[in-house]
Write the structure tokens for this entry.
Amino acid sequence: MPGPIEDFYAVIPAGGIGSRLWPLSRAETPKFLHDLTGAGVSLLRSTWDRLLPLTGPERIAVVTGQAHEQKVEVELPDILEGNVFIESSPRESSAAIGLAAAILQRREPDVIIGSFAADHHISRTRAFEFAVEQAVAVARAGYICTIGIPPTEASVGFGYIQKGDEMDVDGAPMAAIVDRFVEKPDLETARRYYADRSFLWNAGMFISRADVLLAELQANEPELHAGLMEIAEAWDTGRRHDVCERVWPGLKKIAIDYAVAEPAADKGRLAVIPGHFDWDDVGDFASLAKLISDGHPENMSILGQNDKVIVDESTGLVVSQTNRVIAVVGVEGLIVVDTEDALLVTTSEHAQRVKSVVGALQERGRESVL
Amino acid sequence: MPGPIEDFYAVIPAGGIGSRLWPLSRAETPKFLHDLTGAGVSLLRSTWDRLLPLTGPERIAVVTGQAHEQKVEVELPDILEGNVFIESSPRESSAAIGLAAAILQRREPDVIIGSFAADHHISRTRAFEFAVEQAVAVARAGYICTIGIPPTEASVGFGYIQKGDEMDVDGAPMAAIVDRFVEKPDLETARRYYADRSFLWNAGMFISRADVLLAELQANEPELHAGLMEIAEAWDTGRRHDVCERVWPGLKKIAIDYAVAEPAADKGRLAVIPGHFDWDDVGDFASLAKLISDGHPENMSILGQNDKVIVDESTGLVVSQTNRVIAVVGVEGLIVVDTEDALLVTTSEHAQRVKSVVGALQERGRESVL
């Protein structure tokens, strides 16, 4: 069995709630703490388990909110105490990943970090390991590297990365320069991208030397960079709390795609490794239904108490977190999410609208179920 | 205010569970014990309240099962103790109504009985009272009389009664002879009936002298008649229990439509009064949804905890018996029934299929929720 990759450190930002997965995903128990795929462990734990052979237990860091510190430590009992980085408030991915990069770079100047979302689903991990190994090789050569997923359909739910020229980096036979980053497209554009084999899905994985990442951030967002460096300098000292309290709330909220990846692509400094593994961001119940149905959309997928669900001429997904009998009759693409204090009924077609429910609940002062 | 109708006695068979209304309606708390229309009282109590001005509290009898005796007495605190007739097991409407007819006829030979389901919805009770008053006049003249509802749509959910010649009965200006009874038709036939103004819905209301009803039953179902007479003879004596135990279980299960009404129609002895009130048998959730929406199918109807239901681009019916937040997103004609131990999700279109769920639950040994 191959050992950990030299200089490599994995960072898992565990921040987002996943409000399109309400009422399963909540502020208290966000998406990454759930076993959404029936794997038997949480998505966060799956992410850890997937990274472990690449890093070993002492080289994985998690960036998360105060509210989830304890739960993260329960999920990941082997994580080093100093590797749980607490954000005092949510400030988007540039701050989260940038903070980890700055802290780790102070601890280990040549460190290569890879950031991997805490709440995505990946299967066929051997292909994942191979992709990361190549990405680290590309990162070692001074590039920022991402892993892109060859599309399996014309999805409008993901951003796309257009591959350019192939690269010649030792240990990275599949590496290519990124020509451009594209936001979630409309359906017609998505169809074009799907037909054109040079487009890959942006899976939000970035691998680079910490110093390269920070330099790119400094070039594009100098204030954010300066703030993060100030915090990182104080992090492993007694001043951490005071500096965080003063600096963190003023940091700019910006996704790492905009603050780092796109500008790097414009300069020809962003590389991509095609990842030939199954990947899904499990962004909403439609995507969860599809994932669990495992290519059999003619069945009703069930997550939870199987033997208490009665299905009559229905397809879709039933998530059962209670002990109740659930009967579904004659609805195609149905989504039912049954929890102790909240019930959601929708269809795959409308899964994206679930976010609006969360908004409506906030307006009505029903924070207790959010 | 007009007083009770002379010689008239109302009989309320309260037997059926209403399994197409599961999980709201259960063996323990069948349909007639529910406030399905948001009236503030149960359907049984509404039935009682509607009949009261026509009979007074001492001339209403209920035929029900052992399991519901106590609940019926709670719902109807003014009912006479001797007017709750307990069936030792369910044996269909001929046995239930025939038993009441036989008991009441022994107590009062000239009695005119009217049977009215415990679980139907009626509004505009003045029109109802007028129809019953006419029906009693027709019954006094020796006919068996039914009340038929002028159809408001081409329903395939009800049986039909075809009106024939008008009658000349004092106090019954709208009475007509019934030409024939028709079972629930297919859609094409229903459309024809709806266009032809001589067809009325069979609302299952029968008014006749008890002795006339029993004679008709004797002519068509002599064994059933003999059994009922034997039980009635023993009813108000110490032998009731023994005779019931011996005779009741052997009685033929047959609907009163077949054992009495149809044969009477064939002999020209069945009359009908058109009932110009709103009537619904609330047979399934589609019919309940329609009833509650009150002509506004573009809205989501809610029965229960209104302020915890979030509706986003959905229509249909939500029945909430729990304290949970319920969010429905993007489904037309949706039916959600949320109870403590069971949840049903279907659409108006499939409301008739709910009965099959009850069958599936029985097969799986989930009697606790039935």
About this structure: Chain A is about 35% helix and 25% strand. The two ends of chain A are 44 Å apart (CA to CA). The first helix of chain A runs from residue 43 to 55. Chain A has a mean pLDDT of 94.
